Amino acid sequence: MALTPEVLVPRIGDALVEQNLLTPEQLTKALQIQAQERARGNSLLIGQVLVEYGFISQDHLNQAVTQQILQLHGALQQANATLEQRVKDRTRELEIAYQKLSELSTLKANFVSNISHELRTPLTHIKGYCNLLIEGDFDSLQSDQQFALRVIERASEKLSRLIEDLILFSTSETSTIQVNKEVFDLVILTNRVIDQNKGNAEAKKINLSLDTHSKVVQVVSDSSKVTWVINQLVDNALKYTSPGGKVVVEIRSVNQQIEISVIDTGLGIPTEKIGEVFEPFHQLDASSTRHQGGTGLGLSLAKKIITALGSNLTVSSTLGKGSVFKFHLQQ
Ligand code: ADP
Fold first, then answer.
1. 285 C-alpha vs ligand 1 centroid, how far in Å?
2. Among the four residues 28, 91, 236, 291, which has the most C-beta atoms within 10 Å?
3. Where are the beta strands (DSSP E) in the chain?
């Protein structure tokens, strides 16, 4: 129903009938006259017709109009009070819903954290005994046994990294990320990350290199967190780039800040999906036939960490050409 004054108070003609200042027949007659006048091009209010044609006096009309204004005022106050109460009720409902959501979110994070910690212990045993077997501590092994154990060792390492990611993620969900700032050389740190990923890059025949504007680049930040993020970005770049491609970590001085870009010549990301890559547990290729492993947590964690470090992790990408992930650090 449209909100008109009639919803709150009766029309003036009906009000006059209710107050016995006018008979229903007189009102019908007055409405007919109003319609006739309108047909002749005279637009008259019903009150005007009633007075001009002598159905009621001007005084009675004024009284009725004043009464209507007062009634309307009262009705509006009532409507306002009802509206305020409804807003209060809705706000309370929203508060309760938000509280429930927060509780659920904490429950989820605690669940992930508990499960991850529980997985860590048996995995440590698997890795430990696998190592002893490979080292030949129990007996010397035939080459196919050695091979099988190496496969188990690699799979355990991978599982271990996934569990560490899960633990880091659940911690970042339940508490704020702790930042320990210090001064360090970004070039040394990046070279270390590149060295760690060299084997992987060579295996995939990808050229992995550092491109820096200076041999020494001092920054003020949390070195272990920056290491984690660059490592994550390089790992992704290598994962999503085909053999023969290139991955470059670029360090530049831009607007008195240090800009770090991880550039690859890989698959690229479709424009409409670019926002999704930072969502937790989100993988663009979620099909069961996907070639790359991973939890879909890496970029969401990297973004959280970079935000905690006071910057913003951004991405630009061209499908089929490659991607650039970028953030800034203070000098
Ligand atoms: P994952 O464990 O799947 O690598 P991430 O959070 O690190 O999880 O990345 C989320 C998704 O973003 C990946 O599944 C992939 O689809 C996409 N992605 C990340 N990095 C790149 C990149 N360098 N090139 C193309 N796609 C990428």
1. 9
2. 236
3. 182-185, 207-212, 218-221, 246-254, 257-264, 314-318, 322-330
Q: Is this structure's pTM higher than 0.85?
A: no
Instruction: Provide the residue type at 159 as one letter.
Output: L
Do residues 9 and 75 touch, judged by C-beta distance below 8 A? yes
List pLDDT tens digits, range 104-133. 888 887 888 888 888 988 999 999 999 999
Which residue is closest in CA terms to ligand 1's atom 20?
236
Pocket lining: 264 vs ligand 1, CB cutoff 6 Å: yes
Q: Tell me the average pLDDT across 148-171.
A: 87
Residue type, 293: G
Biggest CA–CA distance in the chain, Å, is: 122
- Mean pLDDT score across all residues of the chain: 90
pLDDT, tens digit, 9 for 90 and up, residues 299-327: 999 999 999 999 999 999 999 999 999 99
Q: Are 156 and 133 in contact (CB under 8 A)?
A: no
Write the residue with the smallest CA distance to atom 11 of ligand 1: 283
Strand partners, 180: none
